[in-house]
Amino acid sequence: MSINQPNAPFVGTIEKSPKISLIGTLAMLVEAPGDFDLVQQGRIWALADAVSAWPNVQEAVIGVTNVMLVFEQPPADIGMLSAAIAELWHRLPGRKADGKLIEIPVVYGGELAFDLPAIARHAGLSERDVIRIHSEGDYTVCAVASSPGFGYLHGLDPRIHMPRKSVPSLNMRAGSVTIGGMQTGVAVLTSPNGWNAIGWASVAMFDPSSEEPSLMLPGDRVKFRIDRIEL
Amino acid sequence: MIEILASPAFNTIQDLGRNGARRFGVSTSGAMDPLALAGGNALLGNDDNAAGIEIQTFPFRLRFQTDAPFALTGADPVSTLAGSPVPSWWCTRARAGDILEIGTPRRGARVYATFGGGVDVPRVLGSRSTHLRAGFGGLEGRTLQVGDVIPVGKPSCEAGRRFDFGAAPPDVAIAGAGTADDRMLRIRLMRAGEYDLFSEEVQAKFWSTSWKISARSDRGGYRLTGARLILDAPVEMRSHGVVAGVVQVPPGGEPIIQMSDANTAGGYPKMAAVIQADLWRLGQATPGSFIVFSEVSYQDAVAAMAPVNDYLAKLRATANLYRAL
């Protein structure tokens, strides 16, 4: 009896498999089906942990509800590898955001927070409210990417979501606390940056001389604390 | 030790790249033409991955403070050591005080100067490659400047051994790798994740266009001009890992090929990816030159690495033999 027959017994929703695609012969991107949420992100973390230990996997690079595997050598059988990943995806329980708690004191406002007025206008709130809402959030590090040690933080209150700028700020200071779309983060490098600056933190986010160079890791939780407000 | 006497801009210390740290947001960096770097190291009896100097602006000049074997590989410049010509894809020995001068290449974009024992700067996260954006690796994480003194390791072979021989460059020695005289570089690609989202018409345009590498191209990526690849329905991609060679299409429709200093993450639709066997050739393409793409299967892309690996293995075996004579 096929489950497509109208009188077939109810067998539950059949979950879609991840989308698996190659980027050349040495990288494979695995994208979770469906919308972004922390459950899917947690399953990506678990998948990344598991496949990192596989032979020929140089590393598993976590993105936002996706993971890219980088291989030492081109895999012999792409079909079999993809099937093994899909099977693991369906079987593996997700990982909770059970990493360490990172508390970051922030100087909100002031010279370096040059986008705070625009965010307040966009949100129809006072600058002080934007700061309060941002500092009260519980954030989760989804992925570390884009610059060394830069964590994409999930959990930003929708009231203060703010699109990235189409023209990046040319010299945003390292340590700038920023909002980009539905995410927030702490800029690690002084460089051009399209996110919106609302404050500044003097926390060392990345130490290349360390074996564990990145303060933030996927699954860590982040709290921003008001150190000072300069309005 | 070697001392830099002239280095216009953007010349850096590179090895084969910083692997395994993408997950911390760290780009791999590494030589744009890894075959040339590995080839120079093979001529000298170094590990493939020993660090050398990637020279992409000229004239470049350095002085040897001690006797040292070295090799020049990659692009094809007019070079002299103490006034005498040095061919490219050649290794020889410099005497203390000798000045090596490297002029603008007649062909190719990047020259690799490698030294017996390799450039001996500290490894950072497993690599000596310069990560310019983050300011670590190489020499203090920056480009080379006049007056810099760079430590060189101990050559693996004793002094007195033979150091005056060369190899046929890979674009000559590897069948089908040559750049035709029409200045059109042929690069093989595999389709990538969002290829099927583009209409057949746009896909055809992608393969038929002679793409110009724009002046706004560097170690981070090559921006291409020549056509616009527009999606019928724009897609919102979530940030995901990318590797060198990926061909992304931003909303404007002009593709970008990510190269050695590319960001670890991207969010543009991916049309294709340059196969590993052709990345070194792309690393030698100059802004203003033209490239044309052809599609290969996964199996063909894997098979295409065999002649590249064979070339390097033969070069190393021949160099070892010659040095032992």
TrEMBL record, chain A:
The keyword Nucleus does not apply. GO terms for molecular function: ATP binding; hydrolase activity. Pfam families: CT_C_D. Residues 18-216 form the Carboxyltransferase domain. It comes from the Bacteria. Keywords: ATP-binding, Hydrolase, Nucleotide-binding. InterPro entries: CT_C_D, Cyclophilin-like_dom_sf, PxpB. The keyword Transcription does not apply. This is Allophanate hydrolase. It comes from Bradyrhizobium manausense.
Automatic annotation (TrEMBL), chain B:
Signal peptide: none annotated. One of its GO terms (molecular function) is hydrolase activity. InterPro entries: CT_A_B, Cyclophilin-like_dom_sf, PxpC. Keywords: ATP-binding, Hydrolase, Nucleotide-binding. Residues 23-311 form the Carboxyltransferase domain. It holds the Pfam family CT_A_B. NCBIfam families: urea_amlyse_rel (TIGR00724). This is Allophanate hydrolase. It comes from Bradyrhizobium manausense.
